[in-house]
Structures are given as C-alpha cells and as structure tokens.
Design brief:
18% helix, five-stranded mixed β-sheet, 89 residues
C-alpha cells in the first residue's frame, strides 16, 4: 500500500487512497486523509474522507480536514489498534 506523509504548517497529514485502521503518527495527532469510499461515511476522529462526493465536488482545505477530524466520532477499530480500547466499546 502506498501513502504520502505531508506537513502543512505544524500539522501532519497521512494521505492514502483507502481508509486505514491506524497510520504513522496517529498517536501524535497526524490526520489520515482518504478517498475510495463512495458512500456518505465521512470518516472517524483523526481520519477524513476527502473524496469530492463528500464535499460538493470541491477540494477540501487543510483547515477543513483538521476541523472535521476533530469533530467526527472515534472509531473503535482505531482505538483498539492503538491500545486505547477494544472493538465493541
């Protein structure tokens, strides 16, 4: 799987076509940006679906992605992978 890590200001983004369960820097606040999902699923805390079908076919700014990442509900899969919970919590 290929991904890119990108720093914009003091924020780190991990870009991958697919949503990931965990990613490099997740514990340090890195935000994972993905596409691929062509449903209304926006993502989970720390990861954002930036597919154009989620955003009225317009690009998403780093600030928008960061805000969305903070507002989304956490993923139990991500929390379990990072040692902060278990699946089903």
């Amino acid at each position: 799987m290929i991904w890119v890590e990108l720093d914009i200001g003091d924020r780190r983004f991990v870009l991958c076509h697919y949503p990931l369960v965990t990613w490099n820097g997740a514990r340090a606040g890195a935000i994972q940006l993905f596409g691929h999902v062509h449903t209304r699923w926006r993502g989970a805390r720390g990861q954002v679906n930036v597919g154009v079908d989620q955003w009225n076919f317009t690009p998403v700014s780093a600030d928008q992605a960061e805000l969305e990442a903070m507002l989304l509900s956490p993923s139990s899969l991500h929390e379990a992978a990072e040692g902060a919970g278990s699946v089903g919590d």
